[in-house]
Design goal:
Layout: H1 2-34, H2 37-43, H3 48-55, H4 58-82, H5 87-102, H6 105-115, H7 121-146, H8 153-165, H9 168-173, H10 182-200
C-alpha cells in the first residue's frame, strides 16, 4: 500500500514539474493574462481537469509556483526556529539561499509578469506565497538578536533585508543587472550581516 502511495506521489511530482515548466514558459511568452489554464495544460500534456482539480484555478496554480520557489528558504527558517540555532549562523546560511532565489530567473520572471499585469492578481499571489510567508519567519529569528536591543525584531529584519537586497531585485526585473554568481551572493550576505552587527552594537 505504501509503495502505491509513493508511486502516486512521485508521478504527481513529475506531472507538477512539467506543469511548472509549461506555466513559466507561457508566463514569459504570453504574460499572466495570456497564460490560461487550458494553454498550460496543453503545453504540459496534462488535462485541464487535472489542473483545476489540483490548483483550483490559475491564481491557485501560480500561488503554488511562488510557494515552490520560496520553499527552501521557508523550510530552513522553520527548522532553525524549532531548535536553538544561533541566529547569526542561521542568517549566514539562509540569506544565501534566500537572495539566490529572489534574484533567480523564476522569481524575476514572476515579478516582471506581475508588473505587466493590470489586474494586480499575480502581484498579490507573489506577496502571499512569498514575502508574507517568509518575512515573519525572519522576524521571529531576529527576536533572538533583538533581546536587550532597543530596536525591535521587525526593525532589525527591515534593516537586514534592505541591506541584503537593496535595488538588486528591481535592477534584475528591468533587465539592467545579470543574476549574480555565488561569490557575489556570499559577498552581499557578508556585507549585510556586517551592517546588521554595526546596527546592534
Amino acid at each position: 500500500m505504501k509503495l502505491e502511495v509513493d508511486v502516486k506521489e512521485e508521478k504527481r511530482k513529475t506531472r507538477h514539474a512539467a506543469i511548472s515548466v509549461a506555466a513559466y514558459h507561457l508566463l514569459e511568452t504570453k504574460g499572466y493574462n495570456g497564460a490560461s489554464m487550458l494553454s498550460i495544460a496543453k503545453a504540459a500534456h496534462a488535462s485541464n481537469e487535472t489542473l483545476y482539480l489540483w490548483y483550483g484555478d490559475k491564481k491557485g496554480l501560480f500561488e503554488q509556483l511562488v510557494k515552490d520557489n520560496a520553499a527552501e528558504t521557508k523550510q530552513m527558517l522553520e527548522t532553525a526556529l524549532l531548535g536553538q540555532d544561533d541566529a547569526l549562523e542561521t542568517l549566514t546560511v539562509v540569506a544565501v539561499v534566500f537572495l539566490t532565489m529572489l534574484l533567480g530567473d523564476k522569481a524575476i520572471l514572476l515579478n516582471r509578469a506581475a508588473a505587466a499585469d493590470p489586474s494586480g492578481e499575480l502581484g498579490a499571489v507573489i506577496s502571499v506565497g512569498g514575502r508574507d510567508a517568509v518575512q515573519p519567519l525572519f522576524e521571529t529569528l531576529m527576536q533572538r538578536l533583538a533581546q536587550g536591543h532597543e530596536a525591535s525584531a521587525k526593525q532589525l529584519t527591515g534593516w537586514f533585508l534592505g541591506a541584503l537586497i537593496g535595488d538588486l531585485q528591481i535592477r534584475r526585473i528591468i533587465g539592467v543587472e545579470k543574476a549574480p554568481c555565488e561569490t557575489e551572493i556570499k559577498k552581499r550576505v557578508t556585507t549585510a550581516l556586517s551592517a546588521l552587527s554595526k546596527l546592534r552594537s
